[in-house]
Amino acid sequence: MVVARRLAILGCTGSIGQNALEVVRAYPGRFQVVSLAAARSVKKLAQQAIEFKPQVLTVIDQAAAAALKDLLPPGLAARVTHGPQGYLEAAVGAGAQVVLSAMVGSAGLLPTFAAVQAGLTVALANKETLVAGGEPVMAAARAKGAVILPVDSEHSAIFQALMGNDPGRVRCLWLTASGGPFRDYSAPELSRVTPAQALNHPNWSMGPKITVDSATLMNKGLEAIEARWLFDQPLDNIKVVIHPQSVVHSLVEYVDGSVLAQLGLPDMRLPIAFALAYPERLASALPALPVTSMGPLTFREPDLERFPALGLAYQAGRAGGTCPAVLNGANEVAVAAFLRGALSFTGIAQCVAAVLERHQAGAADSVAAVLEADRWAREAARAWLAARAA
Ligand code: MG
User: What distance in angstroms lies between residue 123's CA and the mean position of ligand 1's atoms?
Assistant: First the structure.
């Protein structure tokens, strides 16, 4: 008999969280959800709580907690918590063995760090954890023996292509990028892109922030920085290739010239299930990759002139210290401004570049230093936006 693996799902109402719960639902008896954490989507969270019966439920603040309690049936025994302390409780206070870190933004860093420090297995989807906090998080993981398993499709592919091989024999890692919906747009066309167009991703269905990041290629830059930490490779050994079909999820090139890849349909349930059940591979009811009829797979170099965000990410990653945290914080503010119509699509990279230029890089060896850099970057980005609007 299989003992159910106890899961904490941080970010349970977002795209990754909902897909994870579908995986849980698909394998009865395999997983037990012990905590669910969301921001403000209390209706969805209440439904999930009724179905999965976790012990701990966390939301962003007291008002959301009150609204959630109103929606829960009287018989439900879950403890409702809120705020930073509540997220910590969801991560390490509910007896989870595996913490799925899928909260959006820097709020996800502290609970994820706590899970690593507690030596738990972390299925990682939150970007800030490694982009901004790579140094302290990986140091803690080594010290505490915590395992970090990537949930992102690209990193999951690399993880799988590295299995059974000597990481010292890697020549480089190739991250594939769909190129987003505007991969063939000219520079003038790019400057006129609307939020509605940007949210219409050709291959993947994801949350709005990451969908915009996919369109600017910032997402790939953030993934390169994450890969640097996850796989302990120099940033310049991590390369990006545009692959519009999103079938090859990434590749590992070895010193003998062999290149190993992982392929699959673009469905997040696949890498999520891999991370949650690792090292086991679960039999899946999802459609198989139609190998004999999938059509041509194409690859080409990314265009850094039209997509400067990718170059900015490499620049920040090479500079190191607090620069990646600043890149990420400024980008988040710029993307939010674009989504509410206050900034053009091409303005996103301009905002990030301006904030990076203004930044005096420091050490990023503690979570506190990382969060301070993140806070500074957001403020600087808002100031840049305000100055432009004036
Ligand atoms: Mg990805």
Answer: 14
With respect to residue 256, please indicate whether it lies within any of the assigned structural domains: no
How far does residue 159's CA lie from ligand 1's centre (Å)? 13
Q: For residue 251, what are the β-bridge partners?
A: 174, 261
Q: Tokens standing for 182?
A: 């505007």
Q: What angle do CA 92, 331, 275 make, to 5 degrees?
A: 40
- What is the Å distance from ligand 1's center to 223 Cα? 7
Position 379 in a domain: no
Total-model pTM: 0.95
How many angstroms is it from 145 CA to the middle of ligand 1?
Answer: 26
Q: How many domains does the chain have?
A: 1
Contact in structure between 94 and 100 (CB atoms under 8 Å) = no
> What is the rounded CA–CA span in Å between residue 302 and residue 241?
6
The CA 268 to ligand 1 mean position distance, Å, reads 9
Assigned domain for 341 exists: no
What's 75's domain CATH number? Answer: 3.40.50.720
What percentage of the chain reaches a pLDDT higher than 70? 99
pLDDT tens-digit series, residues 329-364: 999 999 999 999 999 999 999 999 999 999 999 999
Protein residues within 5 Å, CB atom, of ion ligand 1? 152, 154
- How is 147-173 classified by DSSP, letter by letter? -EEE-SHHHHHHHHHHTTS-GGGEEEE
pLDDT at 1: 67
How many angstroms separate the alpha carbon of residue 389 from the centre of ligand 1? 33
Radius of gyration of the chain (CA): 20
Q: Residue 131 belongs to what domain range?
A: 5-150
Return the bridge partners of 58, or none.
Answer: 37, 81
Between 316 and 284, the more confident residue is 316
Contact 151, 199 (CB under 8 A): no
368 lies in some domain: no
